[in-house]
Automatic annotation (TrEMBL), chains A, B:
The keyword Transcription regulation applies. The lineage of its organism: Bacteria, Bacillati, Actinomycetota, Actinomycetes, Kitasatosporales. Residues 18-118 form the HTH hxlR-type domain. InterPro entries: HTH_HxlR, WH-like_DNA-bd_sf, WH_DNA-bd_sf. The keyword Aminoacyl-tRNA synthetase does not apply. Keywords: DNA-binding, Transcription, Transcription regulation. Pfam families: HxlR. This is Helix-turn-helix domain-containing protein.
Length: 126, 126
DNA sequence: CAGTATCCAATCCGATACTG
DNA sequence: CAGTATCGGATTGGATACTG
């Protein structure tokens, strides 16, 4: 389980609660859109529309939905400028930046084993 | 995009193809069940039923589905022992092991920022 | 034991329309 | 511009039954 090393509490019930919460966080964040958004925000602050352009293929709806989720979990900071038309900027927080390292790692992994994976798919499919 | 550093080819069409393939791999693998399976296989080889017990909450169907996907992408090796009843063992390949480092990173991240995230959620929900 | 196939509910997600 | 709400089709995923 994700929290097997989280042993601050010795209370059984608390451990279970913490466990399910950790699992929830994990399930929230471990999805492709969240990862691609985090990757895009890595370079710095972006507006909603800039993000939509940068994360190719994402729909308006998925972008808002995932941004809310990331904001709720404290990975991105949402700053609204009270201008007209409104300007909303998204920035990675410290936890968000920390997770970016992981996401970067996965991108590197994709490049590194690209050929290997492609070959494996051919073998499997044929 | 995920493959922005993948520049072995100078051909535009190939780059596009590689890009979409990289995105496909990324989308395949960046999901919670795949991550939890990889994490579970980190300690070593496991049978199908052992995996189902270890990855709590996963259904029979999701486990087979994700194992096939991981096998296709060359992250896990599937070894069938022709006994009766059958014995099937799953092991991480080199690319699988490499990705495990990334997944481990995410687990560490969850523990490290657990309190931060919990607090952020409270702030957001209230 | 491991795996496939099927059914059906839950959810995901895109398109569209509407608001401040 | 950024966001919410809604609808309906597509996909996901669990439960169950069946096979070698």
């Amino acid at each position: 389980m994700v929290t097997k090393q989280l042993n601050a509490s010795t209370d059984e019930a608390d451990l279970t609660r913490a466990d399910s919460l950790a699992r929830e966080i994990f399930s929230d964040v471990a999805n492709k859109w969240a990862f691609l958004i985090i990757e895009s925000l890595g370079a710095g602050t972006l507006r909603f529309s800039e993000l939509r352009d940068k994360v190719e293929g994402i729909s308006h709806k998925m972008l808002t939905q995932n941004l809310r989720m990331l904001e709720r979990n404290g990975l991105v900071d949402r700053k609204v400028h009270p201008t007209v038309p409104p300007r909303v900027e998204y920035t990675l927080t410290e936890p968000g930046q920390a997770l970016r390292a992981t996401v970067d790692g996965m991108c590197d992994w994709t490049h590194r084993f690209f050929g290997h994976i492609e070959a494996s798919r051919h073998r499997f499919d044929g």
